[in-house]
Protein 1
Amino acid sequence: MRRGAIVRVVVIALLAAGAATAVALFIPWLPPVQSKEGERIDFVFWVVVAICIAVFAVVAAVTLYSVITFRVRPDDDSDGPPVHGHTGLEITWTAIPAVLVTIIAVLSAVALAENGDLKSNRLKVDVTARQFAWSFKYPQYGGFETTELRLEENRQVELNLRALDVIHSFWVPEFRQKQDAVPGIVTHLPITPTKVGTDTLICTELCGLGHALMRAKVIVMRPADFEQWARAQQRKGAQAGAG
Ligand SMILES: [Cu+2]
């Protein structure tokens, strides 16, 4: 390749990378992340996006340059030159993706392992999914039951999910993770909320006519507020039991 050609390919690649980066950054694709596990997932996601932008830029630049430079002239009916491959190029375009895929695999494995790590001081909540509602039990606080999920800021919760009828799936977009609730088995999901506020739990497995309405409020509270609320619920449950 002549120097002028290389400069042209690089300029097109930079323009393509710039356009793709703008699309990635200036459109709010994801809701704000509000859990530690979600932050790790987002990190892997953005690394993959960056790799995709780089690959896209190279492919777009070589394609556009070739289409413009090597297009056939009018009345040119001759055959193109016979090309039998290029060993150096083939090794390059096999080795680079192998390295990239390995990087993604390692980052994903580390994020998954860290996200599955259970802390000893975790809150435990038994989640029950049924057509078409969620309910939540707090076994560490006398086992009272609610229809909204209340969690503590910066304290890991281990959700133990059960389904009473068909497969449902637990999803809070701000927490990023999804976990199916499957009849007959108990599935688990650790979450560490990082922001006080209210989000929405959405069933993300088509589970019947009321699927679209199968939602519940998720309220992340300051530790002291959560403790106060949980103790109050526990006392109420104990009184109702005694009555
Ligand atoms: Cu459902």
Protein 2
Amino acid sequence: MKRTAVVTAGTASIGLETALGLAAAGFSVTVVGRDTDRAARAVGRINATDPAHPARFLSADLSSLDAVRALADRIGAEHAASGEPLTVLVNNLGAMFADRRELSGVEASFVLNHLSPYLLTELLLPTLTSGAPSRIVNVTSGAVVAAKRVFDAVEPPGGYYGFHWYGRAKLANLAYTLDLAARLDGTGVSVFAADPGGAATDMTDGTMNDPKIVSPGLRLLWPLVRRTFARSTSGPASTAARSSVIAATDSTLTGRTGLVIGADTRPVAPPRTATDPRVTDAVRRLSEQYAPLVSA
Ligand SMILES: NC(=O)c1ccc[n+]([C@@H]2O[C@H](COP(=O)([O-])OP(=O)(O)OC[C@H]3O[C@@H](n4cnc5c(N)ncnc54)[C@H](OP(=O)(O)O)[C@@H]3O)[C@@H](O)[C@H]2O)c1
């Protein structure tokens, strides 16, 4: 049976390396991104590895929840028509900003790191369930430990610090991931989080040199913080993609769910906040409110 995978933000950086890893493992890979030239180069690179099935590109700006809905509709309809299972969904999209910005009135890092992947996942659940055994891999980050942990609103009160807001959105997504794993237990759909560690990519290039991204307390230690960031994001994207590829393919994970695959590709314990029922419930409420399955 043909095995298919969708990798969001799969045309460059960690997502492209993930797509290359999945193609090497025999998957027919769909990469999602915006830039068509970049996408053509990515598909060319994947197909140059001589995969069993050619890769393809689907264009979608995943910062728009309507575009997410349209993408899910298209993928779902294609699988329904072909009868081929959707074996793996890798939600690799993520973003961090030095300056606060909004997307349709909602803080952008919450949209890109949580609401968008949440919505795509929920809308593809019928497809993933009917094609089970299947896997969902949500890309997380070590930044969750620096997150403000209150989820009674999209944003906590106070000034905007991009690294902490990014970590908080990733924490919301991790809480969702573990909650979803429990929800889907017994359906044949396994749900994993994958921590890439760090890599020099579009996302880290520049943003992590700006002291504005951390709280005033950490800014006092900026030379040290900056060195730590530089060290932790100096590696290649190919290494950072290993946790997602393992989460998506490793046979020792068959039948397992709700695991966080660490940067060294082994399961690691999630931070306790990610399994706190108050956090899980609050994230579920925010997700349903700000990313309804059907457009308002
Ligand atoms: N890099 C790190 O050190 C690090 C550390 C921990 C976790 N992570 C996580 O790992 C994942 C990948 O990170 P990365 O550093 O590889 O990111 P990246 O360099 O920003 O990823 C670039 C990819 O994202 C696509 N993309 C960006 N915005 C998009 C949008 N609105 N809609 C569709 N595609 C979009 C780009 O396609 P276009 O060019 O077509 O827009 C390109 O394919 C993220 O979830 C990130 O949070 C990264």
